[in-house]
Amino acid sequence: MITPEILKQCLPEATMQACETFAEPLAEACENFEINTPQRLAAFIAQVGHESGNLRFVKENLNYSAQGLRKTFPKYFPNDQIAMQYQRNPEAIANRVYANRMGNGPEESGDGWRYRGRGLIQLTGHDNYQKCMTDLEVDDPEYFETPEGAVYSACWFWDTRNLNAVADTGDIKKMTKLINGGFIGLEDRIKHYEHALHVLGG
Known about the structure:
mainly alpha
């Protein structure tokens, strides 16, 4: 069901080159993970379209200014002095923000950067990476930056959160909460979903 042309119709803001890059791995992975009805496909494409900036990003961009750090991660950068020490240093930012959670070690371990968000749905944290790498039988975190790895990690995440069942109900708000932990970008995700559903004949 997924060709470069159909993917481009579902995600008009994606480049044709990106659609050509991702269509084949998406078709294969979605079949393997039973993302195989118009509703499921539309929901999946909508979510990965939003998460990846219309198939532009397969790894997390953490190049924040001090002001951006204060706004985005106030818990970790409670004042200007700390934020200034970290600004425009993505590796240091990742190591601070993701330290001591999701199975990561402390800031100095480097786990935050090693297991930063990758894939079309940003897989993050040591424990998620280890589970995903075990299930997909891969051994390099950077695999999730490849088109195939970016797609398969997203499908794996989708499957482990039982999102096909949520997609069957059309509950994009619940789906967004399970993916995002909140409702960031909900309107954009709904817009993507409704458009993709129309394209796929759902």
